[in-house]
Task: inverse folding
């Protein structure tokens, strides 16, 4: 939810009794400080801060050149040119000492890790500061690594989930495990709590994953339509339109597989980007964001990173606090049925 | 479960209180008659007969020749040669008047349709004979077509499910919808009962899909390990070995996408079969079965159609009746938790 969740949304979620999250993977320590401080002004409840723990990108000038050349005609549709060069727009938490120091200072209740695990020293320092650690896993093997590293709870990210696949190695074949199979497997094998994520849109979905042995459910797509999210009007229109029933996993936007509403960007796979390997995440994302901006400047919002999970057709547009209360009521009703 | 479920297994399931199924897609009306009569001798409970309703294959001699040529070195590993020609080894129910007559005569309680819908006349005749119709759907659009055609219940087949994807059009992009998202969507939109299928291995999984609004759960992979199934020793060893956690969707074995335990056949995608388009289902299956037989004759069971869903790591080897009773007990326990 980096770039979609806001301190206002996270605070509304927290104040309504759930664990609100902000994602700081798309900003630096200074930006994260502003978000955390805003959030603390809006709630005194525990909250979660999500970071990206990918292996830092390897620059590949030839691949990047080929990528920009292939995108040039698409930029051309909007009387624009690709940026002359693209680079690593986000610093991985693995290489961001300032972000670590910020967490040790501001002590969010929970820090969640996506794309892999930081070194033992970082985990020890976070835990030493009383911070609870979550880590995403897409397979039993990743989950077992997380537990061995000392993570307190594992987020079982099903293939249904919107946004970036949390797989540790983006080059390895994707397990594509769905939430039911993954949650049940992790819940039956791990010694730590499992949080199910992917395709869960309402209290009935939460009840379902609790039945599978999850201790909690993580919902992202369900909150995109909330007025407090930073989703733009194009994103909201796509979410509540026919493309909601056609999400797809694409690496073209950011350089790593992520589930997105089918849009003008995902369609490039059968056109200008066919057969090309994107630059490493997040270098490709630099080009992707430039293209989305060029299109948006001409009134075309179809090239955005419109991340969404397979539950998108069940999205609702209601204030975040109301959504949390509705989810709780639906869960109570499902469990007493 | 065609080729895996047996009348003995289906009868054990029925007698234990669930709805047992046999698949007759891999045989003709004469073979189906033997199976149905065997089953009727073993149970007087209602049972389900599953048929394949694919569009009949189009022969493509050049594609078939290229396919056999590419497979020749793999046959060679087992001192064998590909068959000189391959053909449509199964007749689609859409073109099998004798099978329809058999159903009208023997009147199984339920006939389930996989790969699409027969013409209105066939549906009318089956329903006129008092037969309840189920149809698999992998999207809301397919489910709505099934309901409009008069089907009594829709099987929401998640991407997790083992065996053949029931998608109506194998050429169209796959929705890849997982069970949670698909079941919740269908249950909230359809006027007929939804049966959830895919990744469900125990009573907790059944409880989960009931929470999502399904009226029932369909389990296949959970029954492969039963002594009554016709899975061979290689299949069982693979199911209870490390490849259980690595199922993949492949069209190489049969010509249509199907979820299989990763094995020597699925690996051909990065070798001799890379970049080739398989012949239409079930023509490719003719070659696939010949290769599996050639390998098995030399003691290598790794080329079988070892269909399995993503729940495979949770498979259990117990008699079918005991499994049904265990599932019921787990479900009771999950629902009272």
Result:
């Amino acid at each position: 939810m980096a770039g979609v969740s806001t301190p206002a949304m996270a605070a509304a979620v927290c104040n309504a009794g759930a664990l609100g999250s902000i994602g700081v993977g798309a900003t630096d320590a200074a930006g994260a400080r502003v978000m955390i401080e805003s959030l603390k002004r809006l709630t005194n409840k525990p909250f979660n801060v999500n970071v990206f723990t990918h292996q830092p990108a390897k620059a590949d000038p030839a691949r990047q050149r080929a990528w920009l050349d292939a995108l040039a005609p698409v930029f051309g549709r909007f009387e624009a040119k690709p940026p002359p060069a693209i680079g690593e727009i986000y610093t991985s938490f693995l290489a961001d000492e300032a972000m670590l120091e910020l967490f040790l200072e501001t002590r969010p209740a929970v820090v969640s890790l996506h794309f892999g695990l930081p070194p033992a020293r970082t985990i020890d320092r976070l835990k030493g500061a009383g911070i609870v650690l979550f880590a995403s896993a897409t397979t039993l093997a990743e989950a077992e690594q997380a537990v061995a590293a000392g993570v307190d709870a594992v987020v079982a990210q099903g293939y249904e989930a919107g946004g970036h696949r949390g797989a540790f190695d983006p080059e390895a074949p994707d397990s594509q495990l769905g939430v039911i199979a993954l949650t049940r497997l992790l819940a039956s094998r791990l010694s730590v709590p499992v949080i199910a994520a992917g395709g869960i849109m309402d209290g009935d979905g939460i009840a379902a994953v609790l039945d599978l042995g999850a201790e909690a459910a993580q919902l992202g797509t369900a909150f995109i339509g909330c007025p407090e999210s930073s989703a733009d009007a194009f994103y909201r229109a796509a979410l509540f339109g026919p493309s909601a029933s056609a999400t797809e996993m694409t690496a073209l936007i950011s350089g790593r597989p992520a589930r997105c509403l089918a849009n003008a960007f995902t369609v490039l796979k059968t056109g200008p980007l066919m057969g090309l390997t994107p630059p490493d995440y997040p270098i490709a994302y630099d080009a992707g964001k430039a293209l989305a901006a060029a299109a948006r400047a001409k009134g075309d919002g179809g090239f955005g990173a419109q991340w969404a999970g397979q539950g998108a057709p069940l999205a609702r547009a209601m204030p975040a606090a109301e959504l949390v209360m509705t989810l709780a009521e639906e869960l109570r009703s499902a469990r007493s049925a």
Q: What stands out?
A: DSSP finds twelve helices and ten strands in chain A.
